[in-house]
Design brief:
Helices cover about 80% and strands about 0% of the residues. It starts with a helix and ends with a helix. It contains five helices and no strands.
């Protein structure tokens, strides 16, 4: 138990330390490579100067040293390539380890939650919820049921009374006299005789309504 708890941080620290060490070594190799490149370039310039001075032997010695520097540069390049490869592999292994640890932690948490939640407890809880819901419905129905004198009212009688009220209201509307608006006075120019107003002829609907009113008045 304790090895699992305290071993992982130590392994992670070792991985980070190794990556840091590889990074430092890579930077050191790059610096050496730059120095060797400068030296190789300097040997080429010397070889040119000796060649101009007709000192062939010294020029050849400069070219030999240049080739030695180039061999070292190539070797440093191979070292850098190996370090890059090692860093990539180490970072990939670190990512894989972290992923597996995260999955293992998630699986353990899920297992613990499943142990804490029993299917029988879930069924019991749902039954209690359903029972409480049914009880609440019964309480609401009991509260909405009319009590006292209101419980003795007959719904059919109330509806019949409402229809009588609506019929009486309609009858009152039919018995109301028809009020027509007075015609507006017509301005007659001076010197012209005012024509007698022509009586307006009632429509068939007005005649029928008047007959109905007379019949109901008998």
């Amino acid at each position: 138990m304790f090895n699992r708890l305290f071993g992982k941080p130590k392994q992670e620290a070792n991985a980070l330390t190794t990556i840091d060490k590889l990074t430092e070594t890579l930077e050191m190799l790059e610096k050496k490579e730059k120095v060797l490149l400068k030296k190789a370039s300097a040997e080429v310039e010397r070889a040119k100067e000796y060649s101009k001075a007709k000192n062939k032997r010294a020029a050849i010695q400069c070219l030999k040293r240049k080739r030695l520097y180039e061999q070292q540069i190539e070797q440093l390049g191979n070292f850098q390539l190996r370090i890059h490869d090692q860093m990539i592999m180490l970072e990939g292994a670190k990512a894989t380890t972290e992923t597996v640890d995260a999955l293992r932690t998630g699986a353990a948490a899920m297992k613990a939650m499943q142990k804490a939640t029993n299917i029988d407890d879930v069924d019991k809880t749902m039954d209690e919820i359903n029972e409480q819901t049914e009880n609440m419905k019964q309480i609401q129905e009991a509260l909405s049921t009319p009590i006292g004198s209101a419980a003795d009212f007959d719904e059919d009688e109330l509806e019949a009374e409402l229809e009588e009220l609506e019929g009486a209201e309609l009858e009152e509307q039919l018995l109301e006299p028809i009020v027509t608006a007075p015609a507006a006075p017509v301005q007659v120019p001076a010197g012209r005789q005012q024509a007698h107003p022509v009586p307006r002829k009632r429509t068939a609907e007005e005649d029928e309504l008047a007959a109905l009113q007379a019949e109901m008045a008998l």
